[in-house]
Amino acid sequence: MLIDDIKKANIEAMKAHDSAARSAYSAVISRYQLLKAQDPEKEIPDADVLGIIQKVAKELEEEKASYVAANRPEQAEEVAKEQACLAKFVPAQLTEEEIRKIIATLPDHSMPAIMKHFSANYKGRVDMRLVGKIAKEN
Fold first, then answer.
1. Are the CB atoms for 127 and 93 separated by under 8 Å?
2. 67-90, pLDDT tens digit by residue?
3. Residue 48 is part of which domain span?
4. Is 90 helix (H, G, I), strand (E, B) or coil?
């Protein structure tokens, strides 16, 4: 499971005294535990863990942008290290061209059908905002 890999990476980061990696992995693990606490009996699928990772990565991107805007390059660099640690666990995202090809093969080109298809089949591997933008163009 993906969360087990993150926990192992967190332990390795702790042993290596890598504070950036520890910070990134701990944020993901913390949110996973909050989700798990809502229903301890429920198994959390990797797709949900991937969603957590992507949310943390997005927050880190916003944090880095604020450091850059505030002319604090050292902090921005530290956040970039955290992002790199999380990037190891995120699968390659579909490109705009790949999304267009997939949409072209769908029998129903309505917005709800396209969004449902990508949500069901490519969760975690595609930016749904980009899918929506491309679907509106068609």
1. yes
2. 999 999 999 999 999 999 999 998
3. 2-87
4. coil
